[in-house]
Design brief:
single chain, alpha+beta, eight-stranded antiparallel sheet, 10 strands
Length: 209
């Protein structure tokens, strides 16, 4: 072997050695990463279950009436979750309210029907509606300003914010206006009914005396 070929042979041997992969070390890293991901997932599941346990006093979700009446508005889009009203990071997971899904909303004089393929449907009676507004975020989801339709409603002794995103964002403003008008009308009717009942009670008492 000449002096010229000897350095070439050494260089070729070094390059061949550099291509050898340390498979045990690489497999160890992969297994460790998979175990870490599994641990994080398990901790998330435990946190979800724990939160659901804390919210165990939330009553079952109401179902839609058999004859809710004609639709005033309809919307197709996504349901992004529910939180305690005014606390956009305090997610509610009880009764499937924490599950994101597609959604079909139908507003009637009876209330708001929330149909969720693959998740729990629920109904918000008109008497339980409290507020409607456009906002930019709810737990785990942040959009541009006004990107979310937030409906505030009462359930049991709790006020809940539920976030929806229409496939056609421009129609969300109409939903806010219509819902707000319904809430104002129902509130006025309730006040008038209460006043009427109080007047009847006072009159009855006066007659009895």
């Amino acid at each position: 072997m000449t002096r010229l070929t000897q350095p070439l042979a050494v260089l070729a041997a070094e390059q061949k050695s550099a291509d050898v992969t340390d498979w045990p070390d690489r497999i160890g890293w992969i297994v460790g990463l998979l175990l870490f991901i599994a641990l994080v997932y398990w901790l998330m599941r435990q946190g979800w279950t724990w939160r659901g346990t804390l919210q165990g006093d939330l009553p079952p979700l109401p179902a839609a009436p058999s004859a809710p009446g004609p639709a005033r508005l309809e919307l197709s889009g996504r349901y992004h979750g529910s939180t305690t009203a005014g606390q956009w990071l305090d997610r509610i997971v009880a009764h499937g309210l924490g599950i994101r899904s597609r959604v079909e909303l139908t507003l009637t004089d009876a209330g708001l029907d929330v149909v969720r393929p693959g998740a729990t449907d629920f109904f918000i009676p008109v008497a339980q509606l409290r507020e409607a507004r456009l906002d930019k975020g709810i737990a785990g989801k942040v959009l541009t300003e006004g990107g979310l339709l937030i409906v505030t409603w009462g359930h049991g002794d709790k006020l809940i914010d539920s976030g929806f995103r229409s496939d056609h964002a421009a129609e969300q403003a109409e939903w806010v206006e219509t819902l707000s008008n319904m809430i104002d009308t129902n509130s006025t009717s309730s006040t008038n009914n209460t006043s009427s009942m109080n007047s009847t009670t006072i009159t009855t008492e006066g007659t009895a005396r």
